[in-house]
């Protein structure tokens, strides 16, 4: 799926005929990063991976699939390719749009900690720079009310 961008943040300029659901932000996001490998590449970039070799080692992804995902994430403005400090190779770095996925990755991690492991099963933990476990991300309204599917609604534009 190829989309034009017109702003530094990577905003789409016109509807792409390939969107799953052109008016839904969730569907568009999933079209961009909703496959297993794309989010794992983003996760590893957030954790310091920069080279093709690092991404492959960390994820175990096949070379052809990794090449495709890196190309897609770069084309959609989530990663940028640049010369590595050595100048001999290329590396990948997150853009602002890629870094904006951090709360998404944290929320997926926290959901997984609650629902994807058996009680007592070992798993990695996300810590802040002081070594404390990152607190649960919970959406709240302007008045501090915890938001969920019961007290929110989607407003469709007409």
Automatic annotation (TrEMBL):
Disordered: annotated span: 1-22
Keywords: DNA-binding, Transcription, Transcription regulation
Pfam family for this entry, one: HxlR
Cross-referenced CDD domains: HTH_ARSR (cd00090)
Iron found in the keyword field: no
The HTH hxlR-type domain, residue ranges: 24-120
Protein name per its UniProtKB record: Transcriptional regulator, HxlR family
Gene Ontology molecular function, alphabetical: DNA binding
Matches recorded under InterPro entries: ArsR-like_HTH, HTH_HxlR, WH-like_DNA-bd_sf, WH_DNA-bd_sf
Claim: Transcription is one of the keywords in the record: yes
